[in-house]
Amino acid sequence: NADLSKIAKKIAKALGKAQSLGLDGMKGQNESLADEGFHQVGSGSGGYAVYECHRVIRAPGVAFDEDDLQTILLHVTPYGPSLLDVLPRYIVLEKEDSEDRRNAWSETIAEARGSWEGPSVVEGYAYQGAFFSPHHFAEMKETHDKQLLAYDAACKVMAQARTGRKAGPPTDLASLKVFLESGKRARKRKQNDREFRILQKDVSRVATKLKSMMSTGKKGCTAPHGVILYFEGLDCSGKSSTGGLVQQALADAGFNVEMRQYNRPPTEEQKRGPWIDRFELPDTSPAVSKGGESTSGSESEAVECDGHRHSAVVWDRGPAGDFVYGALAKADEAEKRERYREFMAFDAECQRNNILFVKLMFITNRDSIASTLGKRLAQRKMVQDLRTWLKASYGDEKSNEAIPMEGLDFIDLHIDPTDFIAFNMYQRNLRMFSNFALNTDTSSNPWVVVNTADRFTVRKQLLQVFSVQLDAYAEAKQRQIPGRKWCFGLLGPSLVLPDEEQQETPGIEMSAMATWKTKKGLSLKSVVALMAILILVFYYCEHTTFGDNLKAWTQSPEIEMPDVPVVSV
Q: Rounded to an integer, what distance in angstroms lies between the CA atom of residue 547 and that of residue 549?
């Protein structure tokens, strides 16, 4: 029921607010729900409570009628175990719209059938201010438990002798992931290792292409002077891990790669200037020493060619974030269109300045987001142990200043209440992100929409798309044209030749973005299994009577019925 689903999200937000204020008991629960119009009418064992609310549901402009007043019942009970010391709540909302037909004896059973169907019901779980349907909560909880199970197994492996691992605990996210790999099952470790080696080969291939385009610093460099990797999209959609492969290829090729995060509102000084100016460009100017002469390389060790050096900037969030989370979310249509034009002018300016502007829009489904939330909750739980572990490793408290806690602080900040709020706002955020992409998409430099539901497949395809973009950039530079004409598409653009035949970029519906599935061929394991099945069937037919019976059955002649004499009576 759509109305009850909206109310369920408000209930979850109210319960999350009470938990954040330290009012996790029954009193805080009652106070937070009273603000939403729900008052307790019953209770039971185990913290079970029933609330009632009367709401008016009618069309705007219609006069009030008593029939528009509907009763909504809310059932709340704690649901353990806790996640990060916060106990989820199992909630059931039902709209009490059944009728009392006990005195209506004149009505037939057929007319009373509707009263047997029961009221509209919505059930789910409230956690950290977000409402999870049963299967989304199960996805989050299962991933959370798997991560903790791997962590427990990794600790046991570390305690064993001759494991080949260092005795020190993980200090950042990268070392924690390596640590958790040792606690996973052998089959899963082999699969992850195989996928990692495949992706690293693709990264090395892209880095080698970039190095060949640079022409070892001589004249004739066809590589982009600068690259902007713009990661935008839904929270918990794998922007850093998936887009980081392109970032790694640039760093391996000799680009000076810097990270910029634009997930905070602009400062007062930035508000006084043009909107787009607060987003940083890569510095491609040649490094100059104190004597005024150009130097080969700089403090950042960027590869320098004839008259320029190669650098890249990674935008984690950017202009589109202002339209979803910032002040532009409530701006009028005229102001939004002005910002669209400003962004597209910036895009065109990058092409004229030999800067490759890679615009990546990351999307995924809610199942994947719930799984990522569970993984990050488990990692935050591990950080609590790792802090104590590190302090014990460094000795007395006097040396705490030297303990490397920055990596653990990053893991702690990797998940916050805004991620759960974004989960509740999934449809709204997806619609606004897609709207920005459609209004700023150009034929010369389209958006690349990356669906991370199948991360290994999409990572391979993303590296292939980036390689195609490099080829298109080099070809456009050799022809001295601003850029090849591309068509907007999911995961990658497709090239079309004549400019005069170029059509306007076709739009893509939000539903297609959310439900798009990456093309995945038949795996080697499936081919081998199919061949093994065929061999077993052939062997069985050759060494049993099944083959002879089947052959006799398919080649048996038709049975002719004998002639029966006809007797006349």
A: 5
Residue whose tokens read 């795996």: 523
Helix, strand, coil % in the chain, rounded to nearest 5:
50, 15, 35
Beta strand pairing status for 226-233 and 355-363?
parallel
Alpha-carbon dihedral of residues 257, 258, 263, 269, nearest 10 degrees? -140
C-beta of residue 278 within 8 angstroms of C-beta of residue 266 = yes
Cα 249 to Cα 244, 312, 453, distances in angstroms = 9, 11, 23
Q: Which one, of 76, 77, 78, 80, lies nearest residue 141 by Cα? A: 80
Give Dmax over CA atoms of the chain in angstroms: 132
Query: pLDDT tens digits, residue range 337-360?
Result: 999 999 999 999 998 888 999 999
Q: Around Cβ 291, how many Cβ atoms within 10 Å?
A: 6
How many Å apart are CA 247 and CA 203, to the nearest integer? 9
Distance, in Å, from the CA atom of 262 to the CA atom of 301, rounded to the nearest integer, reads: 25
How far separated are the first and last CA of the chain, in Å rounded? 77
Strand partners, 86: 83
Token code pair at residue 477: 């530079």
Distance, in Å, from the CA atom of 22 to the CA atom of 16, rounded to the nearest integer, reads 10
DSSP assignment of 241-280: HHHHHHHHHHHHHT-EEEEEE--SPPPHHHHHS-GGGGSP
Closest CA to 457 of 424, 429, 490, 414: 490
- Please state, in angstroms and rounded to a whole number, the distance separating the CA atoms of residues 469 and 209: 12
Amino acid at 71: T
In sequence order, which residues have a C-beta less than 8 Å from that of residue 77 and are 6 or more positions away?
46, 47, 48, 49, 89, 90
511 vs 273: CA distance, rounded Å: 37
- pLDDT tops 60 at residue 535: yes
**In sequence order, which ranges of 275-425 are alpha helices (DSSP H)?**
319-324, 333-352, 366-393, 406-413, 417-424
Q: 124-153 pLDDT, tens per residue?
A: 999 988 999 999 999 999 999 999 999 999
In angstroms, the CA 236 to CA 424 distance is 13
Cα gap 33→49, rounded to integer Å: 12
Global pTM reads 0.76
> Alpha-carbon distance 72 to 89, whole Å?
18
Q: In what order do the strands lie in the sheet with 39-43?
A: 39-43, 49-56, 69-78, 89-96, 120-127, 130-132
Picking from 5-9, 163-167, 214-218, 471-475, which range would have the lowest pLDDT averaged per residue?
163-167
Establish how many alpha carbons lie within 13 A of residue 123's alpha carbon, considering only the half-sphere containing its beta carbon.
8
Distance CA 492, CA 445 (A): 11
Q: Are 210 and 250 in contact (CB under 8 A)?
A: yes
- Which residues are 451's β-sheet partners? 363
Distance CA 111, CA 109 (A): 5
